[in-house]
Every structure is written in C-alpha cells, then in structure tokens.
Amino acid sequence: MSQLEGAHMTAEHRATQVMEKIQTLASFSAMQDGILRAYLTEEHRQAHQQLARWMTQAGLETWQDEVGNQWGRKVAANPELPTLIIGSHSDTVANAGGYDGPLGILLAIEALDALQDTELPFHVDVVAFADEEGTRFQTTLLGSSPVAGLWNPALLDRQDAEGISIGEAMRHFGLEPDNVAQAARKPEETLAYLEVHIEQGPLLESLDLPVGVVTAIAGAKRFLIDVSGVAGHAGTVPLPLRHDALCGVAQMIATIEAFATEHEIVATVGKCDVRSAAVNVIPGQVQFSLDIRSQSQEKLDRCTQLLMQQLATIGEKRGLNVVHEQIYQAQAVPCSDRLQQLWAQVVESATGKDVCYLASGAGHDAMVMANLADMGMLFVRCEKGISHNPKENVQTQDVAVALDCLIRMIQSVSSYQTGTC
Ligand code: HGY
Ligand code: MN
Ligand code: MN
C-alpha cells in the first residue's frame, strides 16, 4: 500500500477531499457572488478556524502566531530535531479563484494525514500565511515576512481604504502589534521550506503535464503614480490649452504596454482612479498602479528606471506633474538546486514522465521564506493558466499527483537532511 493510501484512503479519495475542502474555504468570503478573503477580517478568522480543525483531524498540534498565521505541527519523537515547513497563503485577491494559496495548504494537511503513522526524523509544520496578496493594505507577504525574520514595524501605520491601520486591525483581531517580530523562526532550526502552488500560467497544460519543478521566482516592484494636470470645463477649454491628466495617463499606459513588449518583461496597470471624476470636467488628478516584473533582478532594476524616465517625459510634454511612490518590491529569488533535484526525482518516480522545470512569474511566500531556509516549489497544472479569476480551476487527478509528489518529497527530505542526496 503506498503512503498515499495511508489511513486507508485511496489517492483519488484524498484528492477529492482536498477539492471539497477548497469549496468549503471558498465560502469564507466578503463577497456574495465571489471569493474575497483579506488579512485580519472575519473571513480570515473563520477560514483559519476551519483550517485548525482540519489540522487537528490530521493529528497536528495547532496554534496561531503573532501575525495571525495558522500553524499545524506533526511532532517528531525528539523535540531537538529541526523542522520542515510546508505552506502557502489563505488570503485572496478580490473575485479570486479558489486554488491560489489554499491548494498548497490543504495538500500539506492531507499529506501529513496520510503520514500520521510514519515517524519522521524532523518535525513538519504546515502554515497558512494570512496575507500574501496584500489586497487590504496594498503591501504583500505580510504573513510570511515576519516568519522569515523580515519585519518592518513602520508597516503598522499602513492603512486600508477605510483608514484603519494594520496595527489597529491587529488589535481588533486579537493580536499585539508589538509582538509581531516574535513570529520569526530560527534558520538553524529550519530544515527547508516547501510550497505547492497552481502554476497560474499555461505551460504545464501546453505540455500535458500535471506538475512541474519551479526554478526561480520573478522579482517585482509596485508603484502608485500620481499625475496632476489642470481640471477644467469640458465645454470651454480648447484641446491645445489643456493639461488633461487622464489623456496623459492613457498615453503612459500605452507606453508601458509597448515598453514591456519590447523589453520582454511584464508590466501591468491594474488600478486607475480619476479624482473628482465628472463627465463635464477635464480630469485634473489621476492615480494609477504599476506592477513590473522580471526573472532577472538586474533587468528589472534597469527597465524600471528607463520606463519611469519615459513616463516623466510624457508628463513634461503635456505640462503634467508626475510623482511615483514605490509601495512594494521583492527580489528575484532562485529555488534551491538540491530541492529542485529532489522534486525532480519525486516527480519522475510519481509520474514516470519527463520533468518540466519552469520559472514563476507570480510572487509567492516562498520568495521571502528563502531568507529563512532552502526553498523549493512544485507547480500544479491549472486550466488555461487562468488565475486571479473565478474561472481558476484544477483537475482532481492532478491534485492526486501533486499529493503523491508531496508525500514522496517529505519522505525524501530526510535524505536531504543527512546530505545523502
Ligand atoms: O501578485 C502575485 O504575484 C501574487 O499573486 N501575489
Ligand atoms: Mn498565490
Ligand atoms: Mn495570487
């Protein structure tokens, strides 16, 4: 009987359970007709209470840390042994799919349930990070950064759209903001960090492969760009005399698209807000967001500088004032070579297929957890590569393959620990 059939359940049965739990988690949403679960909200609390129940049923010891992350531990016989951490995020973007984040958490819980009768030479912690997307406070990785020892207390003043600061929201949630740094884990006690996540891209589907090994995670920078012109009467100001902020932004957005195409990076304007908008007023003030990414940190830094110069030139020619504020950045991060090798061996033995290695254009908690320990990721095929969209979907049989791979990976990490691989 394979490990997957531990506790007398077949691989398909376990995968079906994971898919059902995805739907249960999706019900903890601030939206009536979609999924939105943001940091330090009632939906966050309810989802983590449900995850804690599933962790307990899988035989894990559970606790919530100082940031609001939910943990579950498969305890090893010897308390002095190091810990393998497996996790992903439980928060979502607005109108999200059900798998981005939760799939990785539920696979980890299911894998440890299947291994309940197996003694491992290390503790295994499953973690649900409470904020990876940054949906509420516009800054991401708030759950995993303190765990990785990367906490900036200045962020406590960052406010949401209602003017509530992270510090206030933490207190309301029952957390003490001054204790956040205590969530940091010790590198010397951490064996490795693993994350299983949907690919959020089309490559695995195009190759007809259920899973793939991640090589690196793209670096990203995010900005809010304020463009100021002159508001005016739509009926009386001739075009040549206008300083129309929205026309300027329109030209900037087209320039961003052309620049990213030319330089083979990705750049996205996801939000655009016309201040005091009215049909008969020439827009005087517009703020838009810019998300720019590359697998190469050097290219990301160089392209960002070049692009900002082009936006400033557009502003000068139109008599607009352009100010940009960087609100987020994450360095491009390579995945551990040894964990990539281990994942590849596991994938080959579980699928009997060639191993696909692919980089991640999306950010993940793994990119900050790499500051704590060696990091390795496994991607799961998702339909048409669609994500951050209610149409996000995976197949149960691919979940079964991913679960099999994760169980084999946990078992092979012991060889990694002793350096025998
Ligand atoms: O934006 C990202 O890459 C991730 O989904 N937070
Ligand atoms: Mn994600
Ligand atoms: Mn996401």
TrEMBL record:
The record's annotation in SUPFAM superfamilies points to: Bacterial exopeptidase dimerisation domain (SSF55031), Zn-dependent exopeptidases (SSF53187)
Ranges for domain Peptidase M20 dimerisation? 217-315
Cofactor needs: Mn(2+)
The answer to whether the entry has keyword Transmembrane helix is no
Q: Which keywords does this Swiss-Prot/TrEMBL entry list?
A: Hydrolase, Manganese, Metal-binding
Superkingdom, natural source: Bacteria
> What NCBIfam families would the database entry show?
hydantase, PRK09290.2-5
The family line of this record is: Belongs to the peptidase M20 family.
Cite the record's note on assembly: Homodimer.
What is this protein's record name? Allantoate amidohydrolase
**What is this organism's lineage?**
Bacteria, Pseudomonadati, Pseudomonadota, Gammaproteobacteria, Vibrionales
